[in-house]
Specification:
By secondary structure, the protein is α/β, with parallel strands linked by helices. Helix content is about 35%, strand content about 20%. A 15-stranded mixed beta sheet has the order 9-10-5-11-4-1-3-2-16-17-18-15-12-14-13, with helices on both faces. It has a 3-stranded antiparallel beta sheet with strand order 6-7-8, with no helix packed on it. About 50% of the residues are buried.
C-alpha cells in the first residue's frame, strides 16, 4: 500500500502546535524537501511565513514551494495530502494561497475535487457549529467576526458564517450558496458518498466541536483519498492531529525542562501585540527571576545601533545574574495609512528582534518566541535553521522545537513557538516556570 505523507504549507510556524516528532522546514529547495518526504514521520511543515507578506509575495512564495514539491516528489512512491495551514481566527491570505496550490498541484494530482475550510482549533477554543466559526471567550462562544481578530488591519473580515466569509474573501467568485456545508450531524455520521461525489474543486466548510469530530471525519477523507479523490485543505492545527494519528508525545509538557541546556536561564522574545499577549506579558513580568527589557519600537528607525547595544547589554547582565530576560516590543496596535506601510514597519521591528536573538548569550538555556511571525523569524532568521524537530507541546497549542546539535551558536537549544492568540493570562508565565524548574 502506498504510504501517505501530509505536506503542510504553514503561513507561520504555529501549525505544529498539536503534533510532535516531525520536521519544520524553513527552506524549500528540492534536496531539503526530498529529505523531508523520505523521513519516517507521517507529516512535515514548510514554514512559508506568508502571513507576514503582502498577497503578491505570498502567492509567489507559495508557487515556488509547490513547484519544488513537484520536483522533489518525482520518483518517490507517496500518496500526498496537501494542507494550507493558517490561523484559526480566519486571518491569512485566503483564497490566494489555496488558489495557487490548486493551480500548481491540481494538474499534478490529476485534478482537485474539493478544498475544505476546517478552521477549528480546540486547544485554542476555536469551534465551528452550523457553519459559524466561534472563539470561546470565558466559556462563551463568540462569533469570530465579533472579536479583535476580525479587525486586523491586513486580514480583516465581516462574516463568521463560513459560506459568507468565502463569498467575501473571493469577492463573489464563490457564492455563499455554492459552499458545500458539512454540519456536525454530517461530520459525526457517514459522509463517504458525499465525499466521493465532490468534483471541480468544490469549496466545503466543515463543522467541528471536538477532536473526535475531526478524527471521524478525517478517517472518511483518507478513505476517499485512497479511492482516488484529490482534496486540498485550508486548515487550523486540529485537523492535522486527526490526519497524522500520532501517539502521545515522548516527554510530557510538565517535564519539558529536561531539554533546557545545563539548567541555565533563558530568554523570551515578545513581538505579538494582540491583547491576549499583552495580558500574558503582564503576568509574566510579575514572576520572580525574570528581567524586563522593553524595546521602544519608535527608536528603531533612528538610533537603532544604540538601542540594540542597550538591549543586548541588559540581556547579558540578566543572564549572568541567573535571570530570564523578557524582551518585548512597546505595546499597542499602531495605525498605518496602508497595508504596505504596516508590513514594512513589522519587518523592521522583526529584523531588530532577530539581531537581538543573534546577540543573546551563547549559554542560554532556552528561548521562547511569542507571536506567530516572531516565532517564524526566530527559527528562520535569528537562529538561521534550515530545519528543526518538533519535540511536543509545553502547553496546549505551544510547540517546543530544538536546534540541531551542530548549530554554530546554540546547539540543542529548546525553542518554544508560542502563538500570540493562544492560552490564558497565566500561560506565558507557566511556560517559563516549566522551563525554569
Amino acid at each position: 500500500m502506498t504510504p501517505t505523507k501530509i505536506i503542510v504549507l504553514d503561513d507561520d510556524p504555529t501549525g505544529s502546535q498539536t503534533v510532535h516528532s516531525c520536521k519544520l522546514l524553513t527552506r524549500w529547495d528540492v534536496p531539503t524537501l526530498k529529505e523531508a518526504l523520505l523521513d519516517a514521520a507521517p507529516l512535515f511543515f514548510v514554514l512559508t511565513n506568508t502571513r507576514g507578506m503582502d498577497a503578491t509575495r505570498a502567492a509567489g512564495v507559495t508557487r515556488e514551494v509547490c513547484h519544488n514539491l513537484k520536483l522533489a516528489l518525482d520518483g518517490i512512491d507517496l500518496n500526498p495530502i496537501f494542507v494550507s495551514r493558517s490561523d484559526s481566527t480566519l486571518r491569512g491570505h485566503y483564497p490566494v494561497e489555496t488558489d495557487v496550490m490548486a493551480e500548481e498541484l491540481g494538474p499534478y494530482l490529476g485534478g482537485l475535487d474539493a478544498h475544505f475550510l476546517t478552521p477549528a482549533f480546540f486547544e485554542g477554543g476555536r469551534i465551528t457549529r452550523d457553519s459559524i466559526h466561534y472563539l470561546v471567550v470565558n466559556g462563551t462562544p463568540t462569533p469570530v467576526a465579533d472579536t479583535e481578530f476580525a479587525r486586523d488591519s491586513v486580514f480583516g473580515y465581516r462574516h463568521s458564517y463560513l459560506p459568507d466569509y468565502v463569498e467575501e474573501k473571493t469577492a463573489g467568485r464563490i457564492k455563499a450558496g455554492e459552499v458545500e456545508r458539512f454540519l456536525l450531524a454530517d461530520v459525526r455520521g457517514d459522509v463517504s458518498a458525499r465525499l466521493m461525489a465532490l468534483h471541480g474543486n468544490r469549496c466545503c466548510a466543515v463543522d467541528a466541536e471536538t477532536q473526535a469530530d475531526l478524527n471521524h471525519f478525517a478517517d472518511q477523507l483518507q478513505a476517499a483519498a485512497a479511492q482516488g479523490k484529490r482534496f486540498l485543505f485550508r486548515s487550523a492545527a486540529s485537523l492535522l492531529t486527526a490526519l497524522a494519528k500520532l501517539p502521545p508525545q515522548p516527554v510530557a509538557a510538565e517535564a519539558m525542562h529536561v531539554y533546557v541546556r545545563k539548567n541555565q536561564p533563558g530568554a523570551v522574545i515578545v513581538g505579538s501585540h494582540v491583547k491576549k499577549t499583552t495580558a500574558q506579558l503582564e503576568k509574566l513580568l510579575e514572576e520572580p527571576g525574570v528581567f524586563a527589557i522593553e524595546v521602544e519600537v519608535d527608536r528603531i528607525a533612528q538610533g537603532r545601533g544604540a538601542l540594540l547595544k542597550s538591549v543586548l547589554e541588559q540581556a547579558a547582565l540578566a543572564h549572568a545574574a541567573g535571570a530570564t530576560s523578557v524582551i518585548y516590543t512597546s505595546r499597542g496596535e499602531r495605525q498605518f495609512p496602508d497595508q504596505a506601510t504596516r508590513l514594512a514597519f513589522g519587518e523592521a521591528v522583526s529584523g531588530f528582534l532577530m539581531d537581538v536573538v543573534r546577540g543573546l548569550p551563547t549559554t542560554l538555556g532556552f528561548l521562547i518566541g511569542k507571536g506567530g511571525i516572531t516565532s517564524n523569524d526566530v527559527l528562520s532568521d535569528g537562529l538561521a535553521l534550515k530545519a528543526a524537530s518538533v519535540l511536543g507541546q509545553i502547553l496546549p497549542g505551544c510547540s517546543v522545537v530544538r536546534c540541531p546539535a551542530d548549530h554554530p551558536r546554540f546547539p540543542d537549544l529548546p525553542v518554544v513557538i508560542f502563538p500570540g492568540n493562544v492560552g490564558d493570562d497565566d500561560a506565558l508565565a507557566t511556560a517559563v516556570r516549566r522551563l525554569s524548574a
